[in-house]
Amino acid sequence: MNKKILSAVIALALAVSINAKVMAAPSSGQAHDKTLELEEKIQNMDNSIQNLMYKIEDNNKDIEKNKEDISKLGKDIEKAQKQIESREDLFNKRVRAMYISGFDSYADVLLESKGLSDLITRVDTVKKVMGFDQGVIKELKTKKEEIKEKKVALDKKSTEIVQLKAENEKKLAGMKSEKDKQDLVLANLKKENERKAAEAAQKQAAERQASQSQASVSQSRGGNSVSVEAPASSGSSSSSSSSNSSNKPSNPAPPATHGDVVGYAMQFQGVPYVWGGTSPSGFDCSGFVQYVYRNAAGIELPRDTYGQIGAGHRVSQDQLQPGDLVFPHTGHVGIYIGGGQMIHAPQTGDVVKISSVWKFYAGVRVR
């Protein structure tokens, strides 16, 4: 009778344990998927913010360049104006010297000429001088107008760039605000997942304790007729798992450059994620990859993920080798380290760390 009771208790305990695991698995899996989905969304937002920051930086450079160009044109206009004034002054002096009293002065020139040939020469000289001065003045005035037109165009361009900068900064503020909300949602989701996991662990521990207590009571009543071999089974399973693990073939040795890249990247674990970061004081995902490849392999990669995804030749997920670039999606990149894992700068509020390749969009081998 005791054997039957003990068997029933053990069977019931196993059924409850198995059923609890089956029921918990979908919920846990759904929560994990939701967390990954939210992390991917935040990574995409980080990437969009980063690209917008690049645009704002370029706008600032354009604004500064336009200021320099406008300043230079202002000096050119001032110089041209002085040249015009100088030429006009010289022209007026010549006219006053030669035509003090209008037509009478010109008559004096005729009267003072020594013959027809001298008169023709004098008139021709006067015409040339007047024509040259007037031509120079006209040319300078034309140049001055051209410079003014360029300045107007630059002023207009500057206004447009400043407006674009203001629009981009407004967009950036909106993106950051939305991302802060998503970060909060993700943080709360992770806390909730941790709380549920802790509750599930406590529940399973309590169930195991209850099962062990019941089995112990039943065993003491029934003597030593029944033995529980769960620990031995567990040990056997562990041994089998260890054996299987040791029998798995190791991955082929990666190329030396790839190995150097991975080893070099590992030292930056714990460095915070920073938008636009490209140094050990803070990295974004593409900045981290670019920095590691530049310093470990002497290879200059493009700055953003869109450029890096075209920086080598594509490899499938099962062809990945340590050192390859791995893209879970177009907005995020990490360095594959083997065993289905990568080292990367995940998102704001996080640090450079090792994670599983939870999703695969593309692999790129850099040569």
From TrEMBL:
Biased amino acid composition, Low complexity: 199-221, 230-250
PROSITE patterns reported for this sequence: NLPC_P60
Biological process according to GO: proteolysis
Region (Disordered): 195-258
Domain NlpC/P60: 255-367
Keyword annotations of the record: Coiled coil, Hydrolase, Protease, Signal, Thiol protease
GO molecular function (one): cysteine-type peptidase activity
Signal sequence residues: 1-24
InterPro entries named among the record's database cross-references: NLP_P60_dom, Papain-like_cys_pep_sf, PcsB_CC, Peptidase_C40
Regions that span the bilayer: none
Domain of life: Bacteria
Regions annotated as coiled coil: 63-90
Family classification: Belongs to the peptidase C40 family.
Identification of the protein by name: NlpC/P60 domain-containing protein
Natural source organism: Clostridium combesii
